Amino acid sequence: MALKSNLLTIGQFAALHSINKKTLMWYDEIGLFKPAAIHPENGYRCYNYHQSPILETILLLRELDVSIPDIQNFMKNRSAQNLKCLLDEKIAELDLQLLHLQALRKTLSSHRQDMDTLLTMDLSEICIVEKEARCLVTVDIDKAITFEKEVELITAETAKYRLGRLHDASYGSMIPVASLLKGNFDDYTNLFIEIPRLRQENGLHIQPKGKYLRAFHKGDLSRLPLRYQEILAFAHDKRLALSGYSYEKGINEIVIDRVEDYIVQIEIPIPGIV
Question: Which positions fall inside the HTH merR-type domain (predicted)?
């Protein structure tokens, strides 16, 4: 009677912990988690309710991708200190995963916003939009720099900030407004990379929060200066002062096959308006 009242069958114990009883059988076979008793009449495995916290710890560690050998080692040397060290390590790993997932979500949201723009945009329109501040990694360039050198610089920066792949960031180019006002429409001074997980820190370029003129250009990039002339004329007519840099980025590379379908988004800060 005491056996029935104090012990659970393998099926009952497995159901209690929402696992398959074959998992308990395997844990027993490898010596990781033994039953409390073996039924003397039928040889069935029986478990004590008080074994639940130990099993739940094993299941938690498995969910955290701790290997079976590491769990076996912990079970042989079970102590508060050893568990704390193991959990500290896993919490640090989870924190990194959370940062990556947050950055990935921000990247996906940015791509979705670009797709929304593509589906609703008027290529001829020049409008005013509100933007949040962004932290950008920038690379200095000039007219003499080769494409191969630009790739080398971008590669170095992505490695510096531990960016696994370029899809984890948005990137583009910058041209000073002062150059545009002088008619120097090819005076690009920087490439930029926006890495979502970066916070403001020394060495980063801050694209300011506020109002921006936004326009688009499709196709032949040699005609981009004509689009800038239209933007400057619009700003002049509306008595809008432009400042800082023009930020250019492609918004449809992942959904086109032809270069002539490439669309550049142009955004230029407009300080002093609300």
Answer: 7-77
